[in-house]
Amino acid sequence: MKILLVTAMISIVISSVACTQTKTINHKSQVNDNGIRVTCNINKVQTKTYNLDEVKQLNLTSNLQTFIYGVIDVKNLTTKPVIFNIEDYKLLLGSSISSKIYIDSVADIIINKEVLTPNGHSTKKVYWVFPGNINTYDINKIQVNVSR
Predict the structure, then answer these.
(1) Cα gap 99→58, rounded to integer Å
(2) pTM as predicted
(3) Could you give the CA distance from residue 126 to residue 105 in angstroms, rounded to a whole number?
(4) What residues form DSSP beta bridges with 73?
(5) Where in the chain does DSSP place strands (E)?
(6) Is 74 left (phi over 0), alpha (psi -120 to 50) or beta?
(7) Tell me, which fold does domain 21-146 have in CATH?
(8) Which pLDDT tens digit goes with each residue over 87-121?
(9) Residue-range domain boundaries for the chain
């Protein structure tokens, strides 16, 4: 029985590894938004393939998803406090817009509006998701998109 359990666990790990591809990259995109400068430093792309059960359970539009990881830095360029929400910033590649932004953490984090002091800034490790596969060469075409 132990051998069967170990074999099952090894096959799960192998299938998980076989379904994911990760590439390290370096791309920076920036946008100014009403006195706020938003800089996204993209540093990793991960493509994951989901099985049919996962596609149904997660309500995905495609069994292939591309995760774009990076750091978002939001800086207040004004002399007054500014309220912002990082959920307003998605990624744009051609006509395709990413999912909402997620905080890159082991736990689910609820994103709230924040107040930036004059000349203050906020930095967070984040990720976005695109359906399908994104060619590594196309990553340099990604732009920050203001989406309210």
Answers:
(1) 14
(2) 0.80
(3) 8
(4) 39, 123
(5) 20-33, 36-49, 64-76, 82-84, 89-93, 96-97, 102-103, 114-116, 121-131, 143-146
(6) beta
(7) Immunoglobulin-like (2.60.40)
(8) 999 999 999 999 999 999 988 888 999 999 999 99
(9) 21-146
